[in-house]
Amino acid sequence: NWFDEDDPLTMEEEQFDVILADYLIGAMDGFSPYAQDQMIPKLARLLKPGGKLFIVGLQPIPDRTPNDPDANLICKVREVRDACILLAGHRCYREYPVDWIQRQVQTCPGLILDHTSQFPILYKQETIVKQINVARSKFQYFPTPGLSTAMAAVLDDLESKLWEATQRSPTGRIQLGFDYIVTAQKEQ
After folding, report:
1. Domain for residue 103, yes or no?
2. What is the mean pLDDT of residues 143-164?
3. Which of 55, 127, 152, 186 has an alpha carbon 20 to 30 Å from 144's alpha carbon atom?
4. Burial (CB count within 10 angstroms: exposed 0-12, middle 13-18, buried 19+), residue 109
5. Is 11 contained in some domain?
6. Considering only 8-12, 14-18, 116-120, 159-163, which range has the smallest mean pLDDT?
7. Cα-based distances in Å from 13 to 39, 117, 128, 168
8. What CATH number does residue 125 fall under?
9. Does residue 3 lie within any of the structural domains?
10. Which Gene3D superfamilies match (predicted)?
11. pLDDT, tens digit, 9 for 90 and up, residues 45-81
12. Are strands 47-58 and 173-186 parallel, antiparallel or unpaired?
């Protein structure tokens, strides 16, 4: 944990030519919530002059996609998965939009926003089912068995609808959202 008060990660004396923050900002909410705005400046201090910082992230899945019922199923899976995580008393990952990351880079002294790339996400059924199974893995922590039974029925229904949606798709995949890479460079 980069921000653990009892055991802080200190690397201030080290500097690197390249730093890859691979889905780091989104994962932080599960481990060091409310410190996301401090991460890019912390990483920038670890860069050598002229060094590159690559920030990989996932554009947050929207609450709904009214004009695309198949993609909307993925939105619903995210919603139910996160509900199960919260009902289990655990924290969800919280992804950050590309424009939030760009603003953090632009306001970080000594960093220059270099480039942003976006990559559309094509979800396979197996990928979506993994998220459904994350939700199912939380049932053991629910306060009542009835709640587990009710959520299991919701997830089973979603899995069935997703199978139908991926079978309808010519590629067997459902497109929704994008991953991104924001590239920044430390001033010389």
Report:
1. yes
2. 98
3. 127
4. exposed
5. no
6. 8-12
7. 17, 31, 42, 55
8. 3.40.50
9. no
10. Vaccinia Virus protein VP39
11. 999 999 999 999 999 999 999 999 999 999 999 999 9
12. antiparallel
